[in-house]
Description:
Number of strands: 9
Strand content: 5-15%
Helix content: 40-55%
CATH architecture of the largest domain: 2-Layer Sandwich
Order of helices and strands: EEEEEHHHEHEHEHEHH
Distance between the termini: 47 Å
Amino acid sequence: MGRTPLPRKTPNEDRHTPVRKCILTGERAEQRLLIRLALGPDGQVAPDIHGKAPSRGAWVGVPAEELEAARVKGKLAGLLKRAFKVTELSVPDDLVARIGAGLEKATLDRLGLEARASNLLSGAEKVDAAARSGMVALLLHASDASEDGASKRDQSWRVGLEEEGSGRKGLRLPVDRDRLSAALGRANSVHVAITDAKAAERVKHHLERWLYFIGCSNARGDAKAGRHADAASDGN
């Protein structure tokens, strides 16, 4: 089964949305969906997860498996030399692992910030109550959440959005409850409901890119849920 391509963008499709081209596929996509690789002064290539390093950069938008294959075959190094206009550079053997770790950290750090800003809830009862009230913009489950528990939270979410029978489900995170709880600073966090639509977008900015990179099929946000949450908040 082939790679799921990123949503394509033309350079002038939206002047307010930065667009970049993946050096491996030649496809253009929104910058937020791609990963920047930066060239250090020592000729070392390193991931620039937040895309803010002052050094020269090139963009990639493929899953980890595909990126690793390009690294092993030397294709990645060749394309980076062309992009950076240099004859020598070094691509570390653990580049893909470092990208994965960086994407995980960026996502969990963002969740921690939203927790401290009181933009999310954890705990089955609190999540259910918020979901049934239509106040949940994004629903997340730890990787080790039980199927029964996740199904109950999903059903509450559908009820609150008046979408019973739609099959809408929360996203399963690639981390277990211990790792999620540590990120949030809250004990036994298995299910998480983000109640602020803008906060949900900030989380999805990192989460979707991480899920796509590690090959998860549910790496797609749900703007409709965010709009429901906005409408519910406006009524209070």
